[in-house]
Amino acid sequence: xxxxxxxxxxxxxxxxxxxxxxxxxxxxxxxxxxxxxxxxxxxxxxxxxxxxxxxxxxxxxxxxxxxxxxxxxxxxxxxxxxxxxxxxxxxxxxxxxxxxxxxxxxxxxxxxxxxxxxxxxxxxxxxxxxxxxxxxxxxxxxxxxxxxxxxxxxxxxxxxxxxxxxxxxxxxxxxxxxxxxxxxxxxxxxxxxxxxxxxxxxxxxxxxxxxxxxxxxxxxxxxxxxxxxxxxxxxxxxxxxxxxxxxxxxxxxxxxxxxxxxxxxxxxxxxxxxxxxxxxxxxxxxxxxxxxxxxxxxxxxxxxxxxxxxxxxxxxxxxxxxxxxxxxxxxxxxxxxxxxxxxxxxxxxxxxxxxxxxxxxxxxxxxxxxxxxxxxxxxxxxxxxxxxxxxxxxxxxxxxxxxxxxxxxxxxxxxxxxxxxxxxxxxxxxxxxxxxxxxxxxxxxxxxxxxxxxxxxxxxxxxxxxxxxxxxxxxxxxxxxxxxxxxxxxxxxxxxxxxxxxxxxxxxxxxxxxxxxxxxxxxxxxxxxxxxxxxxxxxxxxxxxxxxxxxxxxxxxxxxxxxxxxxxxxxxxxxxxxxxxxxxxxxxxxxxxxxxxxxxxxxxxxx
Length: 607
Known about the structure:
Largest sheet: 5 strands, antiparallel
Distance between the termini: 51 Å
């Protein structure tokens, strides 16, 4: 349809009427960078109120199905004329199969066509249809329907990055009628029948192509007991699988269930992940059944998996890497220093560490509110957490260990450590530089100028945490705000600003992010408090950040292997170790990798 048929309704009216019925679930992602990205951290509950920034609704629900097909025709591919030609052609095709649709256009010439469905279809079915249409229409962007976890699109009324809004190319009453009387299963069958040849072709193409699902080609990683291998987790989350290995959705579904059972999960764990949207890919494989039959079907598959595993001593297919992580606990080397034996009196060490934490809270006011300042605060927390775990103020660290704990690159951590230990009256002192496979030895130091105040102040309740995995996605300000709330009773925004030393705008945005994921709630007297029922661990799994942590750990393990091989070949005495003439590529590693990592810290503090 052309622009001269454009609706005269307001953007707010179009959004309120259509966004809730087109969305696959009542969630929307906001773009805080003028429409460039729609990150998961800015996902909110979908309401009828029009957002003030570009907003894209989620296409797929927690069950891995969608309520409408979203066709995005991109003018940047071949220009507006080609977009209009493709839209006219697809509308002619839709009319030929008896389908009804909604159309809108954006200020830059792109167009969207929405095909509401009376019966929701699975991720695999929707992807097949959109990819098949992509073989016919050059300007059709297939990616929104190729990502179960992150597929989203702006709907009518949404603000646009270039100004203006998504504008209906038809009257609102007509669009609303289409949304309220969606296309029947008979029409869906007609659409897929007409595209049968193209669907067969795109499936064959996927089978020929190298499987490139997100992280599917990542290195094999040792997983702690109770966690599945990465390929199986990717399959459960995204619904994407290697068609040369699994012929059908049913085969892929059974592989996930077997892998979950082999990893030590219980049936209730799998059910929870499906119902809460952590594993929408697996849920989509059961969407072919009526809702009341999905969990009973899962239970039948679970019983089959248990029987299979009981008859086979070999590890389940696709889950051969499930075993306990061999990563050791942090090693303290302070006992090697003359006159110091910190673990002989762990209570005294814990008292010192808690007093050091008081000093840290006092000193934090000196750090900038920039990302650099927040990162240094988090590095200090990582040191404090490791000290508590080892019951010693002395901890042997390398930059890679801290990098895992704080979610930064090891080269960035090295810069922060140099700055922290070069401060006047620092909170950390470098006692001994790393040698061979040993990391740097640090001591938590209470500066003289802060000693009286730190000793007089009450110890803070609870644990000190490095960056828990979920906050890799939600951000550092959210981590500090959550920390302040979990250690205190309900408090107003002004008190959170005072405790976190963050700007009011940063705190407000962090509160918005945390509330959107039900991590905090606002109660009486406009005071904020944490929601105990919401698990940081489960959210981290849903976001996929645990796999990012695991990938970082594996990368650093590989670094250690390279380093040890170089040591074995080139170093015969300690004196030679740091010789300027060494041919080892220091520019790549900037010092010997750690003999241990903080992966245990990262995973243990996730929940």
